[in-house]
Specification:
145 residues; 4-stranded antiparallel beta sheet; 1 helix; 5% helix; globular; Immunity protein 50; Imm50
Length: 145
């Protein structure tokens, strides 16, 4: 398991899954870049993943049983060095990598990398990050009421 990143409200993710996942095969279903208020000059990026846990159990069709489906919305503040490519109709992650910068040379304290299986890839740096919401959903990524 990866280390739990230093994100505000990260406990929401660890409570839903029992650990902080690598988000292998999770899909980025939305991504928004905000310039920030003109007086703050602090741009931000929000994105939402449809994530789940793969179990060792097999379905009748021979596929691994998936459980703990959730929509997880992240927000990162003070972003820079943004490089995001290949956004399309499906954006499947190999892994979401959130790391602290060991020896910061300027304001950025975190790196966020979308390691791609298909679609979106790239990353950015940020001053801070937080979990906005963790919402149970069905296998199609539709929020449960």
């Amino acid at each position: 398991m990866p280390e739990t990143p230093p994100l505000k409200n990260v406990h929401q993710v660890t409570e839903a899954f029992g650990y902080f996942p690598v988000f292998h095969d999770a899909e980025v279903i939305s991504l928004s870049c905000h310039r920030g208020a003109p007086d703050t000059g602090s741009p931000s990026i929000d994105f939402t993943l449809h994530a789940w846990e793969m179990t060792s159990e097999l379905t009748e069709s021979g596929h691994y049983q998936l459980g703990k489906h959730h929509l997880i919305t992240f927000r990162f503040h003070g972003v820079d060095h943004v490089k995001l490519d290949h956004w399309n109709y499906q954006n499947v992650l190999f892994e979401l990598i959130i790391r602290e910068i060991e020896e910061p040379s300027d304001h950025a304290l975190l790196t966020v990398d979308f390691s791609s299986s298909f679609g979106l890839e790239g990353g950015f740096r940020a001053i801070s990050g937080e979990i906005i919401s963790v919402t149970p959903c069905d296998e199609d990524g539709v929020a449960l009421k």
